[in-house]
Amino acid sequence: MAITLTPETLEYAGGTLAREQVGLWRDGLRRLRRNRLALASAVYLGLLACTCLVSIFWTPYNPNLVNSCPTYAFPGTPGHPLGCDDLGRDLLSRLMVGSQVSLAVGLITAAIVMVLGVGIGLLIGYLRGVVDAIFALIINVFYGVPPLMIAIVLYVLLGPGLINIIIAIAATSWMDMARLVRGQTLSIREREFIEAARAGGARTGKILFGHIFPNALGPIIVQTTYVVPAAILTSAFFSFLGFGVPAPQADWGGMASEGFSPMIAGFDPYILLWPAIALSVTLLAFNFFGDGLRDAFDPRQRR
Amino acid sequence: MAGSMGDPVLEVRGLSTSFFTHDGEVKAVRDVSFDLAAGETLGIVGESGCGKSVTALSILGLLPRPGRVVAGEILFKGRDLLSIGREELRQIRGRDIAMIFQDPLSSLNPVLRVGFQVEEAMRAHDKVAAGEVSPRSLDLLQRVHVPDASRRMRNYPHQFSGGMRQRVMIAMGLSNRPEILIADEPTTALDVTVQAQILQLLRDLNRDLGTSIILITHNLGVVAGLCKRVIVMYAGEIVEEGSTEQIFDSPQHPYTWALLRSLPRVDADRHERLRSIEGLPPDLISPPMGCKFNPRCPFRLERCFSEDPELEPVGDGHTAACWVTMKRAYAEMGAGSLVDTRPGAASGVRPPMADAPLADTGGSQTVEPQANEHD
């Protein structure tokens, strides 16, 4: 062949052809970049992740050190930009450390939900029949179990701890993922390339994880980004009620709880306000990011 | 690798496959027997829903629920594929018997790169050494004439045209050097020029590699271009079998004859119209008594309504299942100049139930056998 198609000639050939050559993922990422809200959310979440990592090694003050500054110091106090709480602990330091709990709960729960939900969803969508019926029942039972109940039971049995919260939330939120993946599997397994793969002698595991899973990956990722904020919110709620991580470990839900009485008493509303703002913005960012991902990777929204 | 012509690699004996639906047992394939010699090209033709694809899926053990093989045996080199274990059958699929499908658009996984999919086909079996997989996939894509194969390997299926995708499917099918390639309507989704290219490719591969090919199609023109032997199926049964010349030059079953008349020919008189076959293939839950083709056959006799004809020799290696056969239809019923092809028109035989109007036998509907089918 006299003419070889190099990337240069492709670009020369014009926008349409060059665009045609872009892979599915890169195309989706480009659409995501064009979505300003999602982009801003991604930037915020990146900063949050950095803050979280930094707080593991360094905070302005020891977050659990009592009387590191005057109690109820207002924001803007020199050296304490966010002020201090009722025990004189630096709120900025506590807020930074609190992100560890939120992100850990959100991400670990999402990972567990993804593994459980995808595994079960693939299996029941592929096997159908009796297995599907049994799991439909199990899923419905789990929908009826409130996460708070499991959290309390584990609190009583094992004492307070981060792992209990994660177990309680994961155990009550894998069902949506399983249902989603089951539906995806049911439709993908009927497509011709699955039959072609089987005709080529592919093993069942290969068909499940090599063919069906990659085709369902878009919706799975989107669903996962919705699990993260839900888990963060639930864990903050547990902490607010006192079933969360044990004191004095700082976390946003617990901080909000600690700030509740001072606000009612009229001393210092900021103790409650800072964790509430951090929590809200983080949840919002995860949701916007999830929406952006869905818009970017859902072929029906493609323009 | 190519064995000498004559020793069969595949023997299908009395294969019957049914789908057990809520409405009853759909007998999709009934008592089908045929041999496939090493290096042979065999065509299976017939209208939509006459059991061609089900026969192929039965061979590979890929019948969708609620389908089941109810009788018969499928001997691949003497081993009955119906009685071996699932893992053994999986190993034969793709390694010894490969299959390519009608729609190359949907037969490739849209989210995986093309080269990766070709390699996957080899990794499913141990026939090709691990170190050989990657260079071989490039070699295969070049062999099926994918231009600029080393770059195209990294593309996704949606970046390929229909013809190129079918080439990739053929490369995947051939990747483990199978002895049999089953091509189920490989050209139906492609336009005519690409069809010709794909057929040429299959012909070359059959000649160069000695792979036996079973070509399943409703398009007799495609069969004529590739196959040495042809099986004509109707309503789940083989109605005629013979060499391509025999089938095309002197079809003996009225169904084959009618199929051929519905095929456009360059050597036909210009004013001659294409003849469609009256009626539809029968309901396979309760097929008609006697010969299954009797509701649509212009040459039917009284006997056709009560007795089911067996495949009988009508020439050297040529069999047909018909009480009349076209030899007699030409001699006694003027088949050569027949214009009215309504059921019973040439023989004047009406169904035994006098009150049954002609329309009920399907006389008012016509079907183009050439129309695309959606299996």
Please name the defining characteristics of this protein.
heterodimer, A: mainly alpha, MetI-like fold, 73% helix, B: 375 residues, alpha/beta, 2 domains, 29% helix
Gist?
The complex is a heterodimer of chains A (303) and B (375). Chain A is mainly α and 303 residues long.
What does this structure look like?
The complex is a heterodimer of chains A (303) and B (375). Chain A has helices at 7-12, 15-20, 24-34, 36-57, 91-127, 129-143, 147-158, 162-171, 174-188, 192-199, 204-241, 252-265, 270-297. Chain A has 13 helices and no strands. Chain A has a single domain (25-58, 90-301), classed as MetI-like fold. The longest helix of chain A has 38 residues, at 204-241. The model of chain A is unreliable at 1-21 (pLDDT under 50). With 303 residues, chain A is an all-alpha fold. The two termini of chain A are 35 Å apart. Chain B has 375 residues and is of the alpha/beta class. Chain B folds into two domains: 8-227, Rossmann fold, CATH 3.40.50.300; 251-367, no CATH class. In chain B, the strands form three sheets. An eight-stranded mixed beta sheet of chain B has the order 6-7-8-3-9-10-13-12, with helices on both faces. Chain B has a four-stranded antiparallel beta sheet with strand order 2-1-4-5. In chain B, helix 4 packs parallel to helix 7, helix 5 crosses helix 7 (162-174) and helix 7 (162-174) runs parallel beside helix 8 (192-209). The interface between A and B is medium-sized, with 25 and 34 residues.
